[in-house]
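tokens incoming
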């Protein structure tokens, strides 16, 4: 299995695991896409609270087993979309990096300036280079 497809698969699996725990954006955390992970997490939590406030009579008496389908299904869709987005992001990023000309950072995969001893994107030192 190629590294690109393995990374995308792991991102999807981590996203699915996070979704089963009710945590949107877990796949994005694996990909180190922090803003996108936070956006998905806030969207998931916000969707849950909005749906509960609209469709549940007394939110203090709600349990996971007693959630109506009008809350469970849309929340599950948000979790699924988060997982699909993590998979798509990993595949698109890998394709973009494969088409990039010149050297790339072994840590983040972005193009690097050959005159620097570190990656200007992730600030990791590049092996075998003197500043």
């Amino acid at each position: 299995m190629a590294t690109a497809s393995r990374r995308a698969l792991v991102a999807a699996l981590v996203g699915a695991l996070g979704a089963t725990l009710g945590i949107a954006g877990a796949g994005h955390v694996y990909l180190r896409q922090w803003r996108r992970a936070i956006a998905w997490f806030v969207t998931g939590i916000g969707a849950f609270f909005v749906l509960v406030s609209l469709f549940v009579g007394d939110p203090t008496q709600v349990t996971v087993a007693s959630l109506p389908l009008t809350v469970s299904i849309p929340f599950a869709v948000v979790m699924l979309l988060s997982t699909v987005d993590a998979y798509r992001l990993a595949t698109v990023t890998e394709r973009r990096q494969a088409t990039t000309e010149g050297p790339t950072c072994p840590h983040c995969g972005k193009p690097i300036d050959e005159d620097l001893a570190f990656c200007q994107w992730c600030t990791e030192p590049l092996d075998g280079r003197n500043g």
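note: The helical segments are 3-20, 26-30, 34-55, 69-99.
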